[in-house]
From TrEMBL:
Residues 250-310 form the tRNA nucleotidyltransferase/poly(A) polymerase RNA and SrmB- binding domain. It comes from the Bacteria. Its EC number is 2.7.7.19. Residues 1-66, 460-521 are annotated as: Disordered. The gene is pcnB. Belongs to the tRNA nucleotidyltransferase/poly(A) polymerase family. This is Poly(A) polymerase I. GO terms for molecular function: ATP binding; poly(A) RNA polymerase activity; RNA binding. It comes from Lautropia dentalis. The keyword Calcium does not apply. Adds poly(A) tail to the 3' end of many RNAs, which usually targets these RNAs for decay. Plays a significant role in the global control of gene expression, through influencing the rate of transcript degradation, and in the general RNA quality control. Residues 99-223 form the Poly A polymerase head domain. One of its GO terms (biological process) is polyadenylation-dependent RNA catabolic process.
Length: 521
């Protein structure tokens, strides 16, 4: 180690430097609890041995079991890493720390996929990471992490976690505090699956594989690290992650990993709703949402997660299948999707059933729909933490449906509304699932793409074909006494209101809207 300067951690223990050419900068002592990080030189090739498999907790021996691969031999290259992730590793190593790209980003690169984002793991404590970067912030309580910002890109930086033996847990075994830090090899044992326990050093162009993740990637096998039942008890969300990764990657699940899931599914009831919502969104936005939902049902994980998912497929499987299929297509094409639209589609079958029931009881169309929406959202909110803005958007999409079904002259007003595109797209889904006559979807498609004259013709045809009493005829407003006597003393709000009620919209300046497809709001 000639030419290198050893650094001292917050407890005064010497550690080998992470960079061979840089002298660590002086740092203030970090208050975080840390374990000794003494280890062999980082880039030394480690002897190959049998990987740790499910049911094993050989934490102390993990370092000796690590495999070191030249990145080029596996098809990895720093050119495929984002600038922000590469810069984060460079700066941490220049400050004297170890830094690796970890998790799903490395896994996706090895599978030939385009990573959604990159995460970095380091032996620097969170406070030390904050000291290295100018734009960084500390988040999290259960496990503290640092978000490092480079322009619009944010890199999540985590400190190596220690092998927990007596961590703080709740009555069900769920880990409540995970802020004891350790070595890279201990950190590998704390990760969920072997294919996610891969450490790529883009500076040294080396991949560290402590637990046989590369072998499992080649076998397309999803294997839990450690005893699966214990790991699910520590964090029940891992059961959802197992389903999501199996569907997304098209991997087989290792039998010992799969076996406890159905029995332990009730533990998800103890997880905060916000975490469940985040994991469900990852599942739906994975590009394999339909396969994930079907896998949830197969493993029995849908009970209690989405209270209405228990009967969604039984109520209207065609509609939900089409909605998820079109959403998956958008994700695979690199297009964005809207959480509001996704949940509006998932929950619509129950809204429709309750809407029809209210109308059977004698409620008018719009009040009946409003009652059904309120009922479903109240029920769903018990378990799944839907933000108010999402609920508001969902309500707008749903409440727009009877107005879209009427067509008529109000179409000129509807097309100017903020949520029209989402409401129109939702109408297309309903028509595609056979809930509505396809001619209604064709009418709206022609209206959105037509010019002013074509729109006028479509409106006249819809009014002519509308049955009597359909409500498409304009109502004459009552004139105030002042206005009837010559206009003096009339209410100005009545005058303005009459214009709006009559659909007084300057349609000559409305540009044709392109057809909308997919679940975008």
């Amino acid at each position: 180690m000639s030419g290198q300067t050893a650094r001292t951690d917050s407890h005064g223990k010497d550690n080998a430097p992470a960079s061979e050419s840089q002298t660590p900068a002086s740092r203030a002592p970090a208050p975080a609890t840390r374990r000794s990080r003494t280890s062999a030189p980082r880039h030394a090739a480690l002897p190959a041995s049998r990987p740790v498999r499910s049911g094993s907790r050989k934490g102390a021996a993990a370092g000796a079991n690590a495999h070191s691969h030249p990145a080029a031999a596996l098809g990895l290259s720093k050119q495929r890493i984002s600038f922000a992730a590469l810069r984060t590793c460079e700066e941490l190593q220049q400050a004297g720390f170890a830094a690796y790209i970890v998790g799903g980003g490395v896994r996706d690169l090895l599978l030939g996929r385009e990573p959604k984002d990159f995460d970095v793991a380091t032996d620097a404590a969170p406070e030390e990471v904050l000291h290295v970067f100018r734009r960084a912030r500390l988040i999290g309580r259960r496990f503290r992490i640092v978000h490092v910002m480079f322009g619009r890109e944010t890199i999540e930086v985590t400190t190596f976690r220690a092998a927990q033996t007596n961590g703080q847990t709740d009555a069900h075994g769920r880990m409540l505090n995970d802020n004891e830090f350790g070595t890279r090899d201990e950190d590998a044992l704390r990760r969920d699956f072997t294919v996610n326990a891969l450490y790529y050093d883009p500076i040294a162009e080396t991949l560290i594989d402590p637990l046989g993740g590369v072998q499992d990637l080649n076998a397309r096998l999803l294997r839990m690290i450690g005893d699966p039942a214990t790991r699910y008890r520590e964090d029940p969300v891992r059961m959802l992650r197992t389903v999501r990764f199996a569907a997304k990657l098209d991997f087989q699940v290792d039998p010992p990993t799969l076996k406890p899931i159905r029995r332990m599914a009730p533990l998800l009831e103890n997880v905060p709703p916000a975490r469940i919502f985040d994991e469900i969104m990852k599942l739906l936005e994975s590009g394999h949402g339909l396969a994930c939902i079907q896998r949830l049902r197969h493993e029995g994980l849908h009970h209690g997660i989405l209270p209405l998912l228990d009967t969604i497929f039984e109520t209207d499987e065609g509609f939900v299948t089409q909605a998820l299929t079109r959403t998956d297509e958008r994700v695979q094409q690199g297009k964005s999707v809207s959480p509001s639209f996704l949940f509006a589609a998932l929950l619509w079958p129950q809204v429709r059933v309750r809407w029809e029931a209210a109308r059977t009881r004698g409620e008018h169309v719009v009040p009946a729909l409003d009652l059904a929406i309120t009922s479903v959202l109240d029920e769903q909110g018990v378990k799944l933490s839907l933000q108010r803005r999402y609920q508001a958007d969902m309500r707008e999409i749903w409440m727009m449906q009877p107005r879209l079904e009427k067509r008529g002259r109000q179409a000129f007003t509807l097309i100017t509304q903020l949520r029209f595109r989402a409401g129109y797209d939702f109408l297309l889904l309903r028509a595609g699932a056979g809930e509505l006559d396809g001619t209604m979807a064709d009418w709206w498609t022609a209206f959105t793409t037509g010019n002013h004259d074509e729109r006028e013709r479509l409106v006249k045809e819809s009014l002519a074909n509308a049955p009597k009493g359909s409500g498409n005829r304009k109502r004459r407003r009552r004139r105030s006494k002042g206005a009837a006597a010559g206009g003096e003393g009339g209410d100005s709000s009545d005058v303005a209101g009459s214009g709006a009620a009559a659909g007084a919209v300057d349609t000559t300046v409305m540009a044709p809207l392109p057809p909308v497809s997919g679940a975008a709001v």
